[in-house]
């Protein structure tokens, strides 16, 4: 057992009371609908589906693996007792530490591992031997890649990248399409391979420790491999095995994985699929499809599901927490003074709505913070609204943010629009076939700098007075 073994982690989750078994659900919509119901509970749990309709017992699907602070804290090596506040406190410095220490935990290739227990070669590949869900009622097929980690290699440097890209089962289970946005590192790798050799190697882990989902689903710096990043998170190098066809590294204790090739002319119609924006995206446009050469799996493999949808969804909590911490850390390192906090709201999928809290120190400070945050590498993709507020406003509380906007923002002078910025094909406003640009509003909801000295005071009781009356009348405050 190592720190990346999913089954060991599931045992810990069960002991901590964070794992809920579900028996007898159908792969066709019921797994997805129950997952959605779970995400909308006050405190979701990890759900482990077994005895899935049409499949033997033991072939399982996991969802909700990073849906609350205790689960996410454990995945990040912070223990099983995290709350929202303690998790954010720990993450104030952790992402920067993980990046800086990644080189100390470089992945180590080993000759064997549980993943290689069973190897199936083309033409016997059939992904529908596993209980791949149809997650949403409007989905155009069954999606085996939601909590996946797609492995690509930089043609020139050899650096390995892990990305979380949706993967639809194609050709009755013989192949899978992989839908990668043009600006993502994986897409850049594939284009370079196409230019040089006409085809590109690709692999995907489809069931694994949730730390791989975290690393694949956020923007790790381009010069750091996600494998090394996971090693830094867990405090020990990830062990990998080389694919027998492409040589691409896969987690040695992954549950299920595939490898093969993609070619620019090997495409299949794909979608629609319920995406993190809360809308279906995809209109059966042709998408790159993997010519699968090998399938690897452990006995009774567990498929890791992380289906998106209208927030809250499977990984919206994780993305919100991780993006907020990473953007905060990055802005501090960029030298932005007076930064008090950043929150990438779950309502915007952890991407589209970003709130930045600052202590104003000079004229133009608020706009500087807004423009930096709106185009920072870790926040530029699909950002739509960046709002800057004063330090007396809690960026995590949308009620406070809207109050600040209503009283401190003059739309005529305090809202600016950035055009032709980095968008996405999953944006419901992107027309089919159009280039994925978007625009974003930069909203200055801070008190005008020239009015800081005489801006009207906030009409609420002081913290000292509130504390005093709360002690005398606990039945009211409690």
UniProtKB/TrEMBL annotation:
Domain (3-octaprenyl-4-hydroxybenzoate carboxy-lyase-like N-terminal): residue spans on this chain: 15-91
Start and end residues of each 3-octaprenyl-4-hydroxybenzoate carboxy-lyase-like Rift-related domain: 113-311
Domain called 3-octaprenyl-4-hydroxybenzoate carboxy-lyase-like C-terminal: residue spans: 317-445
UniProt cross-references to Gene3D superfamilies, sorted A to Z: UbiD C-terminal domain-like (3.40.1670.10)
An annotated Gene Ontology molecular function: carboxy-lyase activity
UniProt-listed NCBIfam families: UbiD family decarboxylase
Protein name, as recorded: UbiD family decarboxylase
């Amino acid at each position: 057992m190592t720190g990346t073994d999913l089954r060991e982690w599931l045992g810990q989750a069960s002991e901590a009371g964070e794992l809920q078994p579900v028996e007898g659900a159908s792969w066709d919509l019921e797994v997805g609908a129950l997952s959605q119901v779970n995400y909308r509970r006050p405190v979701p749990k990890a759900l482990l589906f077994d005895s899935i309709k049409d499949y033997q017992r033991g072939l399982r699907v996991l969802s909700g693996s990073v849906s609350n602070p205790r689960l996410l804290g454990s995945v990040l090596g912070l223990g099983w007792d995290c709350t929202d506040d303690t998790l954010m406190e720990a993450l104030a410095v952790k992402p920067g530490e993980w990046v800086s220490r990644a080189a100390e935990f470089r992945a180590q290739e080993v000759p064997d591992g549980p993943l290689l227990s069973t190897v199936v070669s083309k033409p016997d590949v059939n992904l529908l031997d596993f209980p791949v869900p149809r997650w949403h009622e409007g989905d155009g097929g069954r999606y085996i890649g939601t909590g996946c980690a797609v492995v690509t290699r930089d043609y020139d440097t050899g650096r390995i990248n892990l990305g979380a890209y949706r993967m639809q089962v194609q050709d009755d289970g013989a192949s899978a399409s992989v839908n990668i946005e043009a600006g993502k590192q994986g897409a850049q790798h594939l284009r370079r391979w196409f230019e040089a050799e006409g085809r590109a190697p690709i692999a995907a882990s489809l069931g694994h420790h949730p730390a791989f989902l975290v690393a694949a689903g956020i923007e790790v710096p381009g010069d750091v491999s996600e494998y090394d990043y996971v090693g830094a998170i867990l405090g020990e190098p990830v062990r990998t095995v080389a694919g027998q066809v492409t040589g691409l590294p896969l987690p040695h204790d992954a549950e299920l994985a595939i490898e093969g090739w993609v070619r620019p002319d090997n495409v299949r119609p794909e979608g629609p699929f319920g995406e993190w924006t809360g809308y279906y995206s995809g209109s059966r446009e042709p998408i790159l499809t993997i010519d699968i050469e090998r399938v690897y799996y452990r006995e009774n493999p567990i498929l890791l599901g992380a289906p998106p949808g209208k927030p809250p969804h499977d990984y919206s909590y994780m993305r919100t927490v991780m993006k907020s911490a990473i953007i905060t850390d990055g802005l501090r390192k960029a030298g932005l003074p007076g930064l008090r906090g950043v929150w990438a709201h779950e309502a915007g999928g952890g991407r589209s709505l970003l709130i930045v809290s600052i202590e104003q120190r000079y004229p133009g400070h608020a706009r500087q913070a807004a423009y930096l945050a709106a185009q920072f590498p870790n926040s530029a993709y699909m950002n739509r609204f960046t709002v800057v507020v004063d330090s007396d406003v809690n960026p995590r509380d949308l009620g406070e943010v809207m109050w600040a906007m209503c009283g401190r923002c003059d739309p005529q002078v305090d809202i600016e629009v950035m055009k032709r910025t980095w968008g996405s094909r999953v944006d419901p406003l992107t027309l089919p076939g159009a280039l994925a640009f978007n625009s974003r509003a930069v909203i200055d909801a801070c008190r005008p700098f020239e009015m800081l000295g005489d801006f009207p005071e906030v009409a609420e009781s002081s913290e000292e007075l509130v504390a005093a009356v709360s002690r005398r009348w606990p039945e009211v405050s409690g």
